[in-house]
Amino acid sequence: MTPELLRALRTDQPSVGIAPDLRRLEGPDSEYGLLKEVLLASPRHLSIVPCNRVSEDALEQGRSSCSASASRQHRALLETLLEAGVRVRTVQPAAGLPDLAFTRDTSLMTPWGLIGLRPGIAHRRREVDVVLDAACAGGIPILGRVTEGSVEGGDVCLLRPGHLVVGVSEERTTTQGARALGRFFEQRGWTVTLTPVDPDLLHLDTHFCVIDRDIALACVEKLDADFVRKLEQLGIRIVPVRAEEIASLGCNVLSLGNRRIISTGSAPRVDEEVRKLGFEVLTVGLGEFTQCGGGVHCLTMPLRRQPAAR
């Protein structure tokens, strides 16, 4: 298997398509159904942008990004996905978009089509145009886009079929943006839960990631108490992640389904705890990206997953 390049036709006005056969589409209805297809974007123009606590600390420490190293690491992630049987589509690089590789924030594939999100940081808004236009040119159906407030994919969690969770920091994702996204789901009978996120933590997926129907990685002390109680009521077991481990993006993982995950290997204790639960943990070193504030979950936007059991 080889990656398929999605070429954007335009970057000023994204095309909008009509969803064809949605049953064949298999848009994700969870974070843990068997992953069949994913969207990546080239990191050719990656650089450390001082727009979150991690990247600001990296710059204060005198770090810089290396495009050659970033490309090698990104290629390793791509090859790991291919070897796991996942079809990979890629978006070509675009000058002036240093964070384009973090495709998770730009859009959200739903069971009914792709939704363009609305990043809270101004320099990332054009990424959505590039991704939507490339997706449409590649035959991926577009459901619509969020035009109110701001919402980034790192704050969005398809907790279970029929239940969407959106983290709200009022900086990267606002209540207005979260509710605008939630309407796409509520109109289709889903429950939508909004939960507060500390702005210093950037996104919900830095400290909460679902890896199976009843298992999630989480730094409990950083989560809202009401949200933790809701997880307990739903019977979701939490694998605890420490504050220093979320700082290295050790909680930011991607479920491949069938009790397999990809992690950066930056939190070996967490990876070992997951293995004890019977998971296979594939590790890919992504230091060029974690110093920018993003890990495996941030770099991948699932396009198709096998429908999950309710």
**What profile does the largest beta sheet have?**
4 strands, mixed
- Within the largest sheet, what's the order of strands? 1-3-2-16
User: What is the helical fraction, as a range of percent?
Assistant: 25-40%
How many alpha or pi helices? Answer: 10
- Which residue ranges are poorly predicted, with pLDDT under 50 across at least 5 consecutive positions? 7-24
For this entry, what is the oligomeric state of its chains?
A: single chain
Strand percentage lies at 15-25%
Summarize model confidence as the mean pLDDT: 89
Decide which structural class fits the backbone. Answer: alpha/beta
In the residues, how many domains can be counted? 1
**CATH architecture heading:** 5-stranded Propeller
Q: What gap, in angstroms, lies between the N and C termini?
A: 31 Å
Number of strands: 16
Describe the structure.
It is a single chain. With 310 residues, this protein is an alpha/beta fold. It has helices spanning 22-25, 53-60, 67-83, 125-137, 175-186, 225-233, 243-247, 268-276, 287-290, 296-299; strands spanning 4-6, 35-41, 87-91, 107-110, 113-116, 142-145, 156-160, 163-168, 191-196, 208-212, 215-218, 237-240, 254-255, 260-263, 280-283, 301-305. The chain has one domain: L-arginine/glycine Amidinotransferase, Chain A (5-stranded Propeller), CATH 3.75.10. The strands form five sheets. Strands 1-3-2-16 form a four-stranded mixed β-sheet. A three-stranded mixed β-sheet has the order 4-5-6, covered by helices on one side. A hairpin with a 4-residue loop joins β13 (254-255) and β14 (260-263). The chain is globular.
